[in-house]
Structures are given as C-alpha cells and as structure tokens.
Amino acid sequence: MTHPSVRRPRLGVDFHTWDGIFQGSRSHILGLYREAIRLAPEIDFVFLLDGIDSLRDAHPEFRAPNVELVRMTHQRAPVRLGLQLPWLQWKHRIDLLHMQYRLPFVRTGACACTIHDLLFETHPQFFPRSFVLQSKLTFRHAARRAKLLFAVSQFSKGEIARLYGVPAEHIAITYNGVDPQRFRPGPDGADAVRELGLEPGGYLLTVGRLEPRKNHETLIHAYAELGADAPPLVIVGQRDFSYDQIDRAVAAHGLQQRVRFLQKVGDQALPAVMRHALAFAYPAFAEGFGMPVAEAMASGVPVITSNTTSLPEVGGAAALYADPNSSAELAAALRQVLGDAALRERMRAQGLAQVRKFDWQQSAQVLVHGVRRFFEPTRPANAAPSPAACNSSSGPDR
Q1: Which of 218, 301, 326, 355 is the most exposed place for a label (fewest CB within 10 A)?
Q2: For residue 397, pLDDT beyond 90
C-alpha cells in the first residue's frame, strides 16, 4: 500500500538585515536561526536575502539540507514589503513567513513577527518624525495580525501588551543570546587590539551606532569629569544620524587625543576589542534589549549602563547603573569601577553568571515550539496558537 507524500512545512524568513549594517536585529535573526535549523530538521527553512554567498560562507549552518537560500535583491522597505516579500512567499509556497517589526503590505500567506521594541512610541524624540508616524501604523498592524508574535525581553513584551492591547499570553519571548565562541574572556586577540593602536586592558569601551538614543554625548561629558589620568575612551560604531553633537562634545572638552572612534570593526575583531577593555559603558536612553551589555559581560568585562527600560533586566545584579540624563551620576559610576580592582573582579564573575541566562539555543527552542504548534495538523485553520506557553517565567530566569 502506498501512502501519499506529505509536503514538508516551509518557514520563510525575511533575512534582508544580513545585507545591511551591523545591528541588533541582524544579530538576533542570525543567532536564532543558526540554532533553529538544527533543532527542527523536519521544517524547510527558506531564507530571503541578497548576500546568499556571503551568508553561506560565513555560517555553515545555512548549507544544511533543510535550508533554501532565495535571492531577494536589496531594495528599500516599500519595495521589499509591498512587492518582493508577497511575491516570494507565493512563488516559493512559504506557509509561514517570519518578519521583524512589520508585515508585508500585501498578504499572500500567514506571518510571524518579532517586535524588538516600541521605543518610537515612548521615546519619539530619538527617531525621525516620518519613522514614528508610519511605525505607529505598521507595528500595531503587525502585533495584531501576526499568527505568532515574539518579543526579545520581558520589558518589550509588556510594552507591546500595554500599548497595542495584545494579550500578554500571546507573546513569546525569544531573548537575544550571546555566542560564547566569540564573546568570552581570555588573552586571545591582544595583537589585533594593538594593531588598532589600543593597549589591552587599558581603555574604556562603548559599542553602538552613533545616533542620539545611544547617548554618546552624555558619556563624553561624564568621561571629561574623570580627569587626564583616565584611560582612553574607545567608541565603536557606525555613524548613523545626528552624530555631529558627539563631535562637538569631544571638541568642547578638548578630548580629540583621548577619544578614539572606530567605525569599521568587523565581526572578527569586535570580540577582541570587547574582551580586552578595562570596563564597558553603555548609557543608552532606551533599549528593547541591549545586546552590547550581554556581550561585554560574556567577555568578562565589568559593565556600567543605564537604569532604564530593558537594561536592568539584561544587566541584573552584575552591572552598575546610572541615570542616562546625568553625566555626574555616570561619571561617579565610571570612577567607582575604574578605581577599584576588587570591584571589577566581582563584576566580571557576576557578569559571566548573569549572561548564561541569554542563550540562543533556549530562544530557538521557543521559536521552534511556536512554529511547530502553528504547523500542527489538528490546529483549526483560523486559530492562532499562543507561543507564550513556552515561556513559563515572567523574566529571564527561566
């Protein structure tokens, strides 16, 4: 007796962030699916992006038998959302398309969505007005129409529920994780750090795009209060928008010789720069998660960060906190860490323990659980599953 073949479920992923600048959403989707591919061999993953060869060369996981890489030429968002994704979902028979932040403008199938944050709702001053206006419509639409909905922190989950009226039990948390093979303590990479003109263990570090929300300006004011004996401040990040105020702050304090800007630090060099820092400062005004904080802790570096939004959730008891609006408070925290070797050692140990809570495999298990529920043959066609069933706790201590 012959049995009719059952078509394998096909999960599509909008992977266009691979083709753009280094940012949290790019790291999230990459870390999540490197694990999910392995965890769900019964699912065919269809990744939509332009840089097929570079992804396959950089990450062998994307050569797996259950992976299909489909070229989607890099286009502006209206073209991608309005034309490319609906067409490719239909053409490649994608049963569920996983997006970040927004859904396609034209529906040709079911979608899942990860919303990292709603900071444009609560902190609109840090975003262009046009972005705020269109995001208020598209993010709300995505939150309410997605068949599966994910957030990257308890903080973001609460904001989505509060601002968009989505039941909290319908939102699963796929925390950002840290790759322990890349971000780890130890002596590796010291020569690469010296090639950048830095002395291992002899600089204060911050990492993040140069734009107002990351709050580099307050950090520079605080750094100026530390005096001439403070180690150099290294700022790693690509210039984004409204970064001229950062340059003005450096000039106003006469810090041109003590503040180093590194715009192009690649994936290979960044972990070395991170692990050889004396301390890491991240005074962002607001974050949906704050991946640099977790990466610094994984690297064995003490962290000073802001006491707002998701950052205390990520830093836990391992970090020191300051009001991001107060350069004096930030300077005091920096002075405390830089001046106390015993404190730095305690913070390193606490940070390594804290960061174990953020693991890509655990987050991928949450994703795969939700996707499998969606593909259950017994699930009614019009019933959206609740992926939050895989998140049994209310915070990162899961």
Answers
A1: 326
A2: no
* Superfamily name with CATH number, domain 190-355: Glycogen Phosphorylase B; (3.40.50.2000)
**Cα 318 from Cα 352, distance rounded (Å):** 9
**Do the beta carbons of residue 208 and residue 237 sit within 8 Å?**
yes
What is the pLDDT of the chain when averaged over all its residues? 91
Which of 253, 262, 196 is closest to 230 using CA atoms?
253
Q: Mean pLDDT throughout 184-207?
A: 96
Q: Read off the DSSP letter of residue 107.
A: -
Q: Which residues are CB-contacts of 214 (< 8 A; sequence separation ≥ 6)?
A: 206, 208, 237, 284, 285
Asked if residue 112 lies in contact with residue 152, where contact means CB atoms within 8 angstroms, the answer is no
Task: Please tell me if the domain spanning 10-177+359-390 has the same topology as the one spanning 190-355.
Answer: yes
Digit-coded pLDDT (tens) for 233-287: 999 988 876 678 899 999 999 999 999 999 888 778 999 999 999 999 999 999 9
Which residues does 263 contact at the CB level (< 8 Å), separation at least 6? 236, 237, 238, 239
Decide which of 3.40.50.2000, 3.40.50.10350, 3.30.70.60, 3.40.50.300 is the CATH code for 10-177+359-390: 3.40.50.2000
HSE (CB half, 13 Å, CA atoms) of 394?
Answer: 1
Q: What is the pLDDT of residues 113-161, one digit of tens each?
A: 999 999 999 999 999 999 999 999 999 999 999 999 999 999 999 999 9
**Can you give the pLDDT at residue 160?**
98
Residue/partner pairs of 229-232 with CB below 8 Å, 24 or more apart: 230/204, 230/258, 230/334, 230/338, 231/202, 231/203, 231/204, 231/278, 231/338, 232/198, 232/202, 232/203, 232/204, 232/258, 232/259, 232/260
pLDDT of residue 305: 98
Tokens 């919303």: give the residue: 115
Residue at 86: amino acid letter: P
